[in-house]
């Protein structure tokens, strides 16, 4: 163990210091979150945005795993759902006060994912995707079968307390305030992931992603960093699941179903996972397209299927990646003239 | 008691046999193309519906044959339009594209056959039951076991003794060297993918009288066959056979003796095997 941690800290890659621009971007993102509910008058749009931001958080977790480990998870709903169930069950059976339940709802899925990660990250590429799908579905099956604990198929309403950390509970159930909370957390998560990616740990996982064998030859343990990356991405998914549970006050096996994992992956693919915020953009596009399609056609699944194929084949970097590339080209051109 | 157990073992063989026919299609495709077809379960589902439609007009056996042929043709199209163009890219691209296909195929089934579940009646000839050691056992289920055995033996002989079989085995060990030796892997691949998807169609129709037909039936069989393929070792024919039969038995005995945990047991088995051997029982060759 100590050798592994030594190797982690021993990765003396010179990580560039965070620029002022990144702090500025974080501040702008946070300010925009606080400002938006004032500008958007429609409660309907704000509700949709809140859902999109929660979905976006899950997608950011999936995208981070693709970016840092180079593997695709088809089962991230597991961590989203375990978090929501954990929170709900602890309150339902009156085991702990809500504040502690909140902490456990984040810790349990993250630790479980880390332990599971130690086993499954050793499985190469495509088989990893198949495995995550199967593992995710195992959690779903459990939530359906454990009637006594989870009330099975029907799910249950979470008995939320009147106040949470001294704030009235209504704050997390109304879109005006919940949107600001979710948005701020999303901005902080993306910023945190950005810091992680640029740290020695981030550089090491990228090296392992590019060539695990070589990283091992140089002397790094490769399983531990990959499992840690998996756990981080599970933590982000768990945070999304917790926000969902707070906002909806209800959990059912749907939050563990593989179609949710699939949707999150679709968001990450559409947005593009090379940039950390790509999956979040993908989520916003996904939710608004879904809303639009709902009014026009019944063939939403086929539409999204076609979109996934088109983006995968024609735009492997996703919409965010393509936008960033265009912006970069534009900057270089104007920069060249100046 | 012993007789009752025998019946349970036979029931496990029925399920294991079906799983084997579906999984072996995945194995063949992986062996040649090094990709996993996430739409495989949907092809099973479409096969069941196509078989159902043909069977209601022209009889059960025409349905089985028709579904296999239609899905084999679909397999050639899939190879030419998806696997071949994407072969130089990351296998993940193929996974995502076939995942997109999965969504499209489910929507297609919704549109063509509706949301209600259908049931394909048993063929009259096999509607009765057979006495096995004094216990009645449905004749149809025996037929399913026989078909699975026939598919297994047929494929084993084909892989072992035919020219194409030799190419398939060679390709599953090293596709590049095989191509260098002058084997047209693209043509072999179209054939092998067609066999794999044709088997998905066949098993879909055969399973139709035992399951309720619904557009979402592809999802659960996909996950179960993934477990089989991962446990058996990606691309391993014999590994898939052993894993499918084992999971068939475990699934069935689990339902009787530990009903609350039955669906979890295959997952636990999978994790256990992977802790022990990350590449599955049999490594990764056909």
UniProtKB/TrEMBL annotation, chain B:
One of its GO terms (biological process) is amino acid transport. One of its GO terms (cellular component) is plasma membrane. Keywords: Amino-acid transport, Cell membrane, Membrane, Plasmid, Transmembrane, Transmembrane helix, Transport. The chain crosses the membrane at residues 12-30, 60-80, 92-113, 139-159, 190-213, 225-247, 254-276. It is a multi-pass membrane protein. It is found in: Cell membrane. Coiled coil: none annotated. Its main location: membrane. InterPro entries: ABC_transp_permease, BCAA_transport_permease. One of its GO terms (molecular function) is transmembrane transporter activity. Belongs to the binding-protein-dependent transport system permease family. LivHM subfamily. This is Branched-chain amino acid ABC transporter permease.
């Amino acid at each position: 163990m100590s050798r592994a941690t030594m190797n982690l800290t021993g990765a003396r890659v010179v990580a560039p210091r965070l620029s002022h621009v990144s702090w500025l971007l974080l501040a702008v993102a946070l300010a925009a979150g606080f400002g938006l509910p004032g500008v958007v008058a429609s409660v309907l749009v704000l509700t949709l945005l809140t859902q999109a931001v929660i979905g976006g958080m899950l997608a950011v977790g999936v995208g981070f795993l693709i970016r840092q480990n180079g593997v695709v998870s088809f089962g991230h709903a597991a961590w989203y759902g375990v978090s929501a169930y954990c929170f709900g069950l602890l309150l339902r059976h009156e085991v702990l006060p809500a504040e502690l339940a909140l902490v456990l709802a984040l810790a349990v899925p993250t630790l479980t994912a880390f332990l599971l990660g130690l086993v499954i990250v050793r499985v190469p590429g495509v088989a990893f995707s198949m495995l995550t799908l199967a593992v995710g579905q195992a959690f779903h099956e459990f939530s359906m079968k454990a009637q006594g604990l989870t009330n099975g198929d029907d799910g249950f309403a979470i008995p939320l307390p009147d106040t949470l950390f001294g704030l009235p509970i209504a704050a997390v159930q109304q879109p005006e305030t919940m949107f600001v909370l979710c948005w701020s957390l999303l901005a902080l998560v993306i910023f945190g992931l950005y810091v992680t990616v640029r740290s020695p740990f981030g550089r090491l996982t990228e090296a392992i992603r590019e060539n695990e064998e070589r990283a091992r030859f140089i002397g790094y343990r490769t399983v531990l960093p990959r499992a840690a990356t998996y756990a981080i991405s599970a933590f982000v998914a768990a945070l999304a699941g917790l926000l969902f549970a707070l906002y909806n006050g209800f959990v059912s096996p749907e939050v563990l179903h593989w179609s949710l994992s699939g949707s999150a992956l679709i968001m990450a693919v559409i947005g593009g996972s090379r940039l950390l915020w790509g999956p979040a953009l993908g989520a916003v596009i996904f939710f608004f397209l879904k809303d639009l399609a709902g009014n026009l056609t019944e063939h939403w699944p086929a539409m999204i299927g076609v979109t996934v194929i088109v983006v995968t084949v024609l735009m492997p970097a996703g919409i965010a990646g393509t936008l960033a590339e265009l912006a970069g080209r534009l900057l270089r051109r104007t920069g060249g003239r100046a | 008691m012993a007789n009752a157990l025998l019946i349970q073992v036979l029931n496990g063989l029925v399920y294991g046999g079906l799983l084997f026919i579906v999984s072996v299609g995945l194995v063949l495709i992986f062996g040649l193309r090094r990709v996993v077809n996430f739409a495989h379960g949907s092809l099973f589902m479409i096969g069941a519906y196509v078989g159902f439609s043909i069977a209601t007009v022209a009889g059960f056996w025409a349905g089985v044959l028709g579904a296999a042929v239609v899905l084999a043709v679909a397999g050639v199209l899939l190879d030419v339009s998806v696997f071949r163009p994407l072969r130089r890219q990351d296998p993940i691209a193929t996974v995502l594209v076939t995942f997109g296909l999965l969504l499209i195929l489910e929507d297609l089934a919704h549109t063509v056959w509706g949301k209600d579940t259908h049931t394909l009646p048993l063929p009259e000839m096999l509607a009765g039951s057979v006495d096995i050691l004094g216990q009645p056992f449905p004749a149809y289920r025996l037929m399913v076991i026989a078909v699975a055995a026939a598919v297994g033996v047929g494929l084993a002989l084909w892989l072992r003794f035919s020219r194409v079989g030799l190419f398939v085995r060679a390709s599953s060990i090293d596709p590049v060297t095989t191509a260098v030796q002058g084997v047209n892997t693209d043509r072999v691949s179209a054939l092998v993918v067609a066999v794999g998807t044709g088997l998905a169609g066949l098993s879909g129709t055969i399973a139709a009288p035992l399951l309720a037909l619904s557009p979402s039936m592809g999802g659960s069989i996909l996950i179960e066959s993934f477990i089989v393929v991962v446990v058996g070792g990606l691309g391993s024919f014999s590994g898939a056979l052993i894993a499918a039969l084992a999971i068939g038995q475990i699934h069935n005995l689990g339902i009787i003796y530990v009903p609350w945990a039955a669906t979890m047991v295959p997952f636990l088995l999978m994790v256990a095997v992977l802790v022990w051997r990350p590449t599955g029982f049999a490594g990764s060759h056909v």
